[in-house]
Design brief:
Layout lengths: L1 H9 L14 H10 L12 E4 L2 H18 L4 E3 L7 H13 L3 H9 L14 E3 L2 E4 L9 H13 L6 E2 L7 H6 L1 H4 L17 H26 L5 E5 L20 E4 L2 H11 L2 H4 L3 E4 L2 H5 L5 E6 L5 H9 L17 E6 L7 H10 L7 H15 L8 H4 L3 H10 L3 H17 L9 E6 L4 H6 L3 H7 L1 E6 L9 H8 L16 H13 L3 H20 L4 H15 L11 H22 L6 E3 L16 H15 L3 E5 L8 H15 L8 E5 L13 E5 L1 H14 L17 H20 L1 H5 L4 H4 L3 E8 L1 H15 L5
Helix pairs in contact: 3-4, 15-18, 22-23, 22-25, 23-25, 25-28, 26-27, 27-32, 28-29
Length: 785
């Protein structure tokens, strides 16, 4: 049987790809460090792998520097958003420290021997994309981003910039963007149809001018010789720039309408999905990107969440379903990936299997291999047979190791999975548990059903580390501020009991009295407004509310950084949401702590936490409550929301500074952004339909700012609680396949018999948690070596 499978395996191997493909000196060094071959059968684009996102940023920065040294007057096109954060950080690092002996030694390791940071002032810059319509001076416009992070830093003169500001001339220049597009959106079909009124007539004229702009833009790119250095990320649907699924590979600069995944990804830039949904955007085309045959085209991707998209781009045949496949055959195109982003590439999987020390396999790795195989075959673990193991490279490697003992191996994996479910089925009590969360709904979306057991039998404390104001939109604030006339502000509002208001709110929620719920939430907003602005009398409060309604919010662009007082006001509303949820669950307000971590300041790239301002408050907290268990959001690669990573480091650093005798268990949890592999989770709690109903009720009634999430996942169009429910139900369905339906239907414990979902936790010792935090830190934070 083994011999039969060998030819199947060989179809994934081989080292030839395309004749003439070559890497630069910088790339050669990184390729050698990665331990990978220069090419693999089945891969239609070259790939350079790095161990982590930090090295990914370094590779990209060094490649850019290397290219500019050879092309000082070349044409560049660089990305916006979060993708290039470490690329920008490394560029700044090298520019500031170029003359340092350590930096020079580092540069020489990569074949860069220049005496000075390259002169970038003669480069030409082509903007990739821009939302339409948008005020280019708006801080969250890509035009503003380009100026802030690239043009000023690289000192590229205005005449060398091909930007996407359409407000200088024509209709938008004459009338102003607010007059032509008062709602900030436009019907894309207006390009083809007749306008219905004077407003649409102006909009149609603006769109016609935009089309002309795109044609002239494309002509200018080609007049410059095409883009010489292109750097871009890859979107959740595989888009490059805003060339989404279905884009022609011959596409040029044009106007497009964002699909849902692209709109969700852009929500953070525009201040919420309500502004990005159905938004139009200008984008350079796929042909524009690759028009110059000598161009260097780099696509960046980090994290396992990108792995399926990356594999499609690199391994699939050319298709409009996979925009990056348009780069196949271009000699300068390549992907720069973290190991997580490359983990679905078949030939590399096989190489990892062939090079692995299978004598030192951990139970966790074995479990993941067997579980992945069983789910692929849709079989119980114990029903897997030798033939099944021959269907995947990893399964085949296990088969070679265990041979006739495969049945015993299946039993071991089955037994370990059952133990994860049953070892803590009835969670023991008499413990002090500190629940930590980056955002105010993280606990709820991760393990809300577990609270039914944890709350009655333990001493529980909840610490929310960030202010969360970025998740509160201006639209929500205006809606609530105007929900009642300011003349109706009660004279006693400043002295009303906060907890009493929240309990009234929850009572109204139980009765489905939405009108009363809105009014009470308005009262909470008024109290928080008074606190945020230091107001002590009702008349001043009325004046302040009028100012917020009539002046501040109407003139404040979505996504723009708020003044400090409004940040505090918004964070107070987020805090009231978690207060409501926990009050509903039976937690007293004096067990809830809002830490307002210093690093969370509203900047586009938030600073890193500090010991003094972020970790020491956690240390004091630990000393006060002496937790036996600490929960923490557990981002596997630091590639999710960066707040998760930073909060994890604050929690870890506070523990490191704690007294030696404080060694709590750490429960790592994940929510809608990342999921556990079944082999990695070691605590699995069954969830019932009632648990999931309670989850949805609590979320939809308590988290008013998130009911229609402004910053949703790219793979789910609906409330976060709905996605959380789906994940927990999917995890149950997976376990049901692995253990069989009989395990559930005939189990002696009603919790398992009644299960319809599962919550997954990874329990660690303090030392294991420290090790993970340190490894993650070395992958994320900029370092020179």
């Amino acid at each position: 049987m083994i011999k039969i499978f060998i030819p199947v395996l060989l179809c994934f191997s081989g080292i030839s790809m395309e004749a003439g493909m070559s890497f630069s000196p910088v790339e050669e060094v990184f390729l050698k460090k990665s331990g990978r071959q220069s090419s693999y059968s089945g891969e239609k684009l070259p790939v350079i792998e790095t161990d982590n996102v930090c090295l990914l940023g370094k590779l990209t920065a060094l490649s850019f520097i290397e290219w500019v040294l050879e092309n000082p007057e070349g044409v560049i096109s660089l990305p916006t958003g979060k993708t290039p954060e470490l690329f920008i950080a490394y560029l700044k690092h090298y520019k500031e420290h170029w003359s340092n002996p350590e930096t020079k030694q580092d540069l020489q390791l990569y074949g860069i021997h220049a005496d000075y940071f390259p002169d970038t002032s003669k480069l030409k810059f082509v903007q990739l994309d821009e939302f339409y319509p948008i005020d280019p001076n708006q801080k969250n416009s890509f035009t503003s981003y380009v100026k802030r992070y690239y043009l000023n830093f690289l000192r590229i003169p205005k005449e060398n910039v091909l930007g996407m500001d359409l407000t200088q001339d024509g209709v938008l220049g004459e009338h102003g963007i607010q007059h032509v597009f008062p709602e900030g959106k436009v019907d894309h079909a207006l390009i083809e149809r007749e306008p219905l009124d004077d407003e649409e007539s102006l909009q149609k004229l603006a769109l016609e001018e935009m089309n002309q702009f795109c044609e002239q833009f494309e002509e200018k790119v080609r007049e410059w010789g095409g883009i010489g250095f292109f750097l871009g990320g890859i979107g959740p649907d595989g888009h490059i720039a805003f060339n989404m699924q279905g884009s022609s590979h011959d596409s040029k600069t044009r106007l497009v309408q964002l699909n849902y995944p692209s709109a969700a990804a852009a929500a953070g830039d525009l201040g919420g999905i309500e502004f990005s949904r159905d938004k139009l955007a200008i984008t350079i085309g796929l042909e524009t990107i690759r028009w110059n045959p000598d161009a260097k085209i780099i696509i960046l991707a980090a994290g396992e969440v990108k792995a399926p998209i990356v594999a499609n781009a690199i391994e699939q045949d050319q298709s409009v379903e996979y925009p990056a496949t348009s780069l196949h055959g271009h000699q300068g195109a390549r992907f720069y990936l973290t190991k997580g982003a490359s983990c679905n590439l078949k030939a590399r999987q096989l190489e990892d299997v062939e090079n692995a020390d299978w004598e030192e396999l951990t139970p966790q790795l074995i479990d993941n291999i067997v579980i992945e195989l069983a789910l692929q075959e849709n079989k119980r673990i114990e029903a897997l047979r030798v033939r099944d193991y021959t269907r995947t490279p990893k399964g085949f490697a296990l088969l070679k190791k265990y041979k006739e003992k495969i049945t015993d191996l299946n039993k071991q994996v089955h037994k370990r999975l059952v133990a994860k479910i049953e070892k803590d089925l009835h969670l023991k009590g008499n413990r002090t548990i500190l629940h930590t969360a980056p955002h105010h709904d993280d606990v709820m979306l991760s393990y809300h059903p577990m609270l039914r057991d944890l709350l009655p039998n333990n001493e529980n404390h909840f610490a929310y580390l960030t202010s969360g104001f970025n998740s509160v939109t201006n639209g929500y604030m205006m809606s609530l501020l105007t929900s009642n006339p300011e003349s109706e502000i009660p004279s006693e509002i400043l002295s009303q009991d906060y907890e009493g208001l929240l309990r009234e709110f929850l009572s109204a929620a139980e009765q489905e009295d939405t009108e009363k719920m809105t009014r009470i939430e308005w009262y909470v907003l008024l109290q928080n407004t008074a606190k945020a602005f230091g107001i002590s009398d009702v008349e001043s409060l009325r004046n302040n509310v009028r100012w917020l309604i009539n002046e501040y919010f109407p003139n404040h662009h979505p996504g723009e950084k708020d003044i400090t007082e409004v940040q505090i006001l918004k964070c107070s509303m987020r805090e009231s949401e978690s207060d409501r949820m926990l009050l509903l669950a039976g937690v007293s307000l004096d067990s809830i702590y809002h830490m307002r971590a210093h690093f969370y300041n509203g900047d586009y790239f938030n600073p890193m936490p500090t010991i003094e301002k972020d970790a020491l408050p956690m240390l004091e907290f630990y000393r006060q409550i002496q937790p036996d268990v600490i929960t923490v959001a557990f981002d596997p690669e630091g590639t999710g929301p960066d707040t998760h990573y930073k909060v994890l480091q604050v929690v870890a650093e506070g523990l490191r500074l704690s007294p030696e005798e404080l060694k709590p268990k750490v429960w790592g949890y994940r929510n809608v952004w990342h999921h556990f592999k079944l082999g990695n989770a070691n605590l699995m709690m069954p969830v019932t339909d009632q648990d999931l109903a309670d989850l949805n009720f609590s979320f939809l009634n308590c988290f008013s700012t998130q009911k229609t999430a402004s910053f949703p996942p790219t793979n789910y169009d609906g409330p976060f609680s709905g996605l959380s429910e789906q994940i927990q139900r999917d995890q149950y369905e997976q376990i049901k396949i692995l253990l069989g339906e009989k395990y559930f239907s005939e189990h002696s414990d009603p919790r398992i018999r009644n299960a319809t979902g599962f919550v997954f936790i990874q329990e660690m010792t303090t030392e294991e948690f420290f090790q993970h935090a340190q490894e993650l830190k070395s992958r994320i934070e900029l370092h020179q070596k």
